[in-house]
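Batch 3, record 17
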Amino acid sequence: MATPAIGEAGKTGDWRDMMPVCDHSKCIPSIKKKAACFLCWLYCPEGVIKATIPLEIDLEYCKGCGICAEECPGKAITMVNEGEKNG
Amino acid sequence: MPENLFKVNIEEYMLPGQRACQGCGLSLAYRYVLKALRENTILTFPACCLTVLHGLYPTTSVTIPALNCTFASTAASASGLVAGLNALNRTDITVVAIAGDGGTFDMGIQALSGAAERGTDFIYVCYDNEGYMNTGTQRSSATPMGALTSTTPVLTKQQPKKDMLRIMEAHDLPYLSTTSSAYPIDLYDKFVKAKRIKGSRYMQIAVPCPPGWGYAPKDTVRIGRLAVETGIVALFEIEDGKFRFTGRSKTLAEKGNKLPVINYVERQGRFRKMSIEQLRQLQRWVDTRWNEYLKRAEG
Amino acid sequence: MAEVQIMTGNQAAALGAKLSHVQVVAAYPITPQTSVTEMLSQFIESGELKAEYIRVESEHSALAVCISASTVGARVFTSTSSQGLLYMHEQIHWAAGARLPIVMCCINRGVGAPWTIFNDQQDSIAQRDTGWIQIYCRDNQEIIDSIIQAYRIAESVYVPVMICYDGFVMSHTMMPVEIPDAEAVSDFLPPYKPHTILSPEAPMNINPVLFPWRRANSEGVLCDGYMEMRYKLQKALDESRDVIISTSRQFAGAFGRDHGGMLWQYKADDAEMILVGMGSLASEATAAADMLRAEGIRAGVVGIRVFRPFPKEDVRAAFRKTKAICVFEKAISYGYEGALCSEIKAAFYGTDIRLPIHNYICGLGGRDVKARELAEAVRSSRDTIAAGDTEPMPKWLNCFTE
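Prediction for the assembled complex:
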C-alpha cells in the first residue's frame, strides 16, 4: 500500500509566510562550540532542524510555525517575512 | 549530537513534508513516541489527525508499519494484530494503538475497555487535543468546561472534562501514564519504559492544538507548559497501582507553587466566553484533583 | 471409512472452522449463533484446536479483530446473526474493501424492530452490496463443506465469504453429517498468503485515505485512486464465479459431495413451474415440487446457492425453458420487492426470456413455511397466470394482510 517518502504533502515550506533565521553569534551551541541547548531541535514538530554547528534548518519543509524562535533561550532565531533576510 | 544531550534515539521516523498543521502538538509528541518505540512496532489508528499526518495514498510520512481502521475500533484492531502475530509466533513486535480523544473517550471507549479488560498485550496511546479536531474542532467529552467549539459555539461546553484516566485506572493496568507535547523527554522516557512492560498500557498525551484552541502556532510548547504549570495537566505514572509524579509536576508537587488556571485559560481563544463561575469551577476541579494526587504521591 | 455423526448446523459450522485450522477466532454471543462460539472456545481451551480466541466485547470488534489478524497473515473465523451482523456492518464493508479472506458464518435471523430471535434472511440479504461472497446452505452437510471451500475460495480471490444458514431451522436441528477427513482437508487448503505484509523491514501504511483521482508516488508512478481500488473488488467478485465453481468440483472430487457450485436444480429440466429459494426454504420447496408432480403439475426447484456474485449466467440457463417462476424468499427490500426476485428479473434483461415471475415473501421472524403452503402458492400462481395477470404484487405467504 502506501510507501514512505519525504514530502507527502508536497514542499511544505510553501506553507510559510514567515521563516526562521538564526543569528549564530547568539546560538548557544555555536558559542560554546559543543553540543548544548538545541532546544530548537527538540521542539521542532517537523524534525526539520539539524542539530549541527552551525544550526541548519531545512527550509524546503519548514512550515514556519515559529516554535523554535519562541523557545530559543538565546533569542538567536527570529521569524522574518518570506523574502526578507536578517543581516 | 543531540542524542547524548537529551538521551534519546536520534532516528527520525516521521519524514519532513507531512500533512499536520503548523505548530501541531501531535506532530511534536509523535516524533518522540516513534523514537521510543523504534522499528519493531506496528501502529494502528482510526480516522483522525494522525491519519492525515501519516499521509494519503500512495505515499506515507512515517517509516513504521501502520494499519488504518474504523473510528470505533482502534483497540479492537490492536487486539487483532496481537492475536494474529501470536498465532504466527511473531512475538518480537510491539503493537501500538493510537487515537485522539474522540476515538478514545467517546466512540472508541467500548473497544478500549474490552481490550484492556482482556489484558491485551499492547500499548494504547490517546493524544488528547480536547475535541474532534480533524473534522473541524467539534466538542468531545474531553473538551474542558467553558470551551467554545464548533458544536458549542455560543454557550460553551457545559460539562467538565471526562476523567478518562480514572476510567482506565479502574482496569487494573500494569502501567498508565500522562505525558505532554511540551515535555518531550519525559514522554520519551515513559514510552521506552512502556515498551518493556507486558499487558495493557495506557498513555495519555496532552496535545495543544493551534486552530482548535485558538492560539498562534508558535505558542504550542508554551501553552503545553502552562497546562502543566497550572496543574490542569499532571505528569505522572501509575505502575502496578503505585502513583508517582514525574518531571515538572514532581517539582511543582514538592515546591507547591502551581500557577492559577487563569494563566492558561486567558491565552486561548476557545475560552473567551468562559464565565467567571466556570473559571472558578475549573480552578476547584484542578485543586481537588491535584490534592488527591499529592496524597497518593505521599502514600 | 468416513465418520458420520448426527449434529446441529452450529456443530457443523464449528467443526468446519476447526478442520480448516483457523488461527484466530473472535466472536460474540447472539441467539441462535452462540453455540458455534461456545464449541470453538471448547476446542481451543482443550487444546484440540491451536488458535487464539478473543472474547470480544461486541460484534463490531469481532470483525475488527478478524480484519487486523487477517492482515498480518492469520486465518480467521467469526460468526454472528441478525443484530450482530448489523452492528458490524461498517466492518463488513471494510473487510471487503481491504480484500481480506475472512470467512464468517451468518446464522440467519430476522432483524428488529420489533424483536425477533427466529429465522429469516433479512440480516444477510441486507449485506448484499458490501462486496462479500455469499453462500446459502440447504443442509448441515453443506455447512461444514462450504466453510472448507470458503477458505480456499477466499484465499485465492482475496474476497471475504459469508456462509449463511437458517437460524434454528438448521442451526439447532440435527442432521447426519459426514465429517471430512482432517488430513484431506489440510491437503485441500493451501496455506494462506496475505497480499500485503505488515513488516518493519518494508514499512507501509495500509488502507489510508485515497483521493478521487489517481496520484503519482514518490517515483512518479501513477497509482490507483479510490475508484480503481473499488473496481478491483468488483472485478474480483466477477472472477470469483469460476473459482467457486472449480472449488466446488474439486471438493466433490476429493470428498465425494457436490453442492452445486452457483446453484442447484431439482426436477427442473422439464419443469413448467419452477420454485426458487435459498437455504432451507429451497430444500423445503423440493417437497412441494414432489407434491405438485403427484397432481400432474410439472414443478421443479432451483436453489440459489451463491447469491453474491449473483449467478446471472447460471440463472439465465436454468430458467430458459420453463413457463413461470415463483420466487420464495425470507426477506424483502422494503419499498420494493424481494431482492432475489428483483435480481432474477434483472438477469433476464437483454435476453429473450419473458415469463411470469411471482414473488412470495415468507417465513419472516421465523413463521413456519410448510411444503404444502409452497405448493398451494404455486397452484395459486398458475391460476393467476391462466387468468391473464402475469405481474401481481408480491404476496406475503400465510400472513394476515387485511
